[in-house]
Write the structure tokens for this entry.
Amino acid sequence: MAAAVLAAVEHDSCVVDEASVRHAAVSDPVYQLLMARVLAGDWADIIPEPLRQQVAANLHAGHQGLDSMQRRVRQTVYWPRLEGDLQYRRSLCEECDVHAPSQAAEELIITPPPHRLAGAGPLPPSSHIKTQLCRYFARWGAPEQISTDGGTNLASEEMGEFFKLWDVSVRLSSAQYPQSNCRAEAAVKVGKRIIMANTGSGGNLDTDKSSLAMLQYLNTPLCGMNKSPAQMVAGRQLRDGVPTARWHLTVDKHRGATLRHRERQMADNGAALTENGPSRTLPVINPGSHV
């Protein structure tokens, strides 16, 4: 089992929260010195030494590379020699060494960036894929296009009819050069990292480790965007095993204004229905009346 996962679950709790940081900071002079020099009110959480290895392990729970972990910490935490500790954590991970991706054999085809969502699960037949996609569509909306590698369970007649029903076009990568399907391949790599290192007995994905790994992926800012998948979809970061400033867990002000406007509109509509609805005064029914 990967060293990152072991370090992340050896403690009583998977989550390092603000109370844990305050408790450990009492006996850490380096932390006290750094806090005395921090003047900005929104400075990232400075992690005391007793908790640094656990936080580093949590940052690597999704088996992401050093660049991804650094993008995550820029929004969340800091301590002296942070980059070196993250690099050391990555060097201890045997799972990453075994499954590290190789260089692409051809130039990747550049396509407009889609909204990226990842999930993990076994590869089912077409009928099961339809069920799973219906759940995704109901939650996130039907996409305009889906990229696939041309697998038989995605290129079947049944799936063709399903995509036609939902007005979703299918983009197929070259059969000889699957790496040209860059975004789908990247999603496959994310799924493999989570599945291979965090499954339970019998391939069960309903584990604390896989949940922690998925949260770490969802909270990691995408390259070149400085926004994580969680921020793009939910308007905020999700609470996971890495300490973060509380304002990161609140909905973005612009998104929040939209949500508040929607709530007010729904409340006004409900009040209007109550006041002007189809209700009417009914005549009194006397005993013995036929109804």
Summary: The first strand starts at residue 45 and ends at 46. DSSP finds 13 helices and four strands in the chain. Strands lie at 45-46, 77-78, 145-148, 169-172.
